[in-house]
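Record type: ASSEMBLY
Status: queued
Input:
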Amino acid sequence: MEEKKESLNFIEQIIENDLETGKHKEIYTRFPPEPNGYLHVGHAKSICLNFGIKEKYNGKCNLRFDDTNPVKEDVEYINSILEDIKWLGFEYDKLLYASDYFEQLYGWAVKLVKEGKAYVDEQTPEQISEQRTNPTVPGVESPFRNRSVDENLHLLEEMKNGLHEEGSMVLRAKIDMNSPNMHMRDPIMYRIIKSHHDRTGDKWCIYPMYDYAHGQSDYIEGITHSLCTLEFEVHRPLYDWFLDQIYISGTRPRQIEFARLNLSYTIMSKRKLLELVTNKWVNGWDDPRMPTISGLRRRGYTPEAVRNFAERIGVAKRENIIDLSLLEYCIREDLNKKANRVMAVLDPLKVVITNYPEGQTEILEAQNNPEDESAGTRNIVFSRIIYIEREDFMEEPPKKYFRLAPGQEVRLRYAYFIKCDEIIKDENGNITELRCSYDPESKGGKSPDGRKVKGTIHWVDSETCIDAEARIYDRLFTKENPDDLAENETYLDYLNPDSLNVINIKVESYVKDKNPGEKFQFERKGYFCIDKDSTSEKLVFNRTVTLKDSWSKIAGNE
Ligand code: ATP
Ligand code: MG
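Status: finished
Output:
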């Protein structure tokens, strides 16, 4: 996976051409989220693209909140978005709000009305959408389409002053009711919403639609390249039409569309993610199973892994579904370099080393990270009673089982060879304890006489280990594309009932005083990080990812 993409993506090609021809001296992009939910990894792609261009071309990038619908928006979302962008490691040049431009946008709307290019329509939204018919049939003109400029100005002002009820009228651009592009069939510019706005208070009761606000905001800010996802391609003629009406001089922004990110076994619509949160299918926006940036962060993802992922998937014009395992590959790759190794037993089985003196303990040295010598070493305690992983013992092992078995030796990581002499069971026949003997000459796991011990297993010391909770996650959906549904289905039908499994584990004492967010590799078991739910009594770990890709092969066989 080392190949570096030297070739430019299609957006970079456009940009480099614009720089060469002198169309632009400085490149200016923006990231324009609507603060109506938390950001997800799809947004991360857009952030990396917009801010990445700023960094690459020494340009600028604004963060602009598209706060044009007070009913759905909230400061909680604004704060989470600010935090996520900072966490990803990007800095915006200006922090702006579409609501900063309400006055200017209204002024332009009045100009359009005066020029006979916009009118107040008193029909219901249903009537309006019916009259648009479909692309192959000419639309029907509104009976209000040709009212006089004076009447329109008067009504628009009344709308603005709150004299009309929500839904009773809208301002529409007068473009072309016969256009094959439905977005050009007299699109709505303003609607009445009588809700308090976090920034403009009760000053406004008419709010601009996305299509009217967006391009104008780009123009006000001097954006050169306005990057958005493919579904806006059909809006582009409208984006340009509005600019044609108001453009005077300076930078004229250009909208360019790219393919949105789709991830397998994941949904990426804010509306559906909000539904998961409000109906408590998950535990909040930052539930580690969520594809939100805050969910990934809590799960143990690093900003480097997310940025790397965005780099690897690239930017293209065709939509596809990216395999979730690529995202997992990126976090494994990063944590392999960064995470200290510790030993933790997820399903403990007690082992008594009968020939090890009672009351004796000793300190062994363990390497923190074989990938990073500067990570140093740590001390681990060894004593007579330890825990091993239940699955690392088999009473009747098959051939080529190299872990612990009756009469069979195994190496305890960093410690000694042990051999199983006796199995203790409860009345139901369940194994409760193993009695083993160790070879004092095999300290450090080195063979004293050249005899071969193939298997090495991890363990923890019973006296000093700590009990902790581990949350083992699986993908949130059982279907590769939960948006691809039959008629009577909903994406909720494919929620994975086993996406969260809580277990009690034993971890070596090294993790005792570590803090939420710290990341470890539990040897042989995966990458884990400390969750914010941890208390002074009990640490809680999230499994970020397994060490190996365990299910993409299975998925591939479906
Ligand atoms: P919704 O889910 O409500 O349609 P949205 O995801 O489009 O919302 P916005 O806040 O409008 O959310 O998105 C901000 C920016 O992020 C937009 O430029 C949008 O094109 C981009 N974006 C959103 N989803 C993705 C995605 N899956 N991949 C890439 N970019 C995305
Ligand atoms: Mg959107």
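Annotation: The CA atoms of residues 41 and 51 lie 15 Å apart.
Annotation: The two ends are 26 Å apart (CA to CA).
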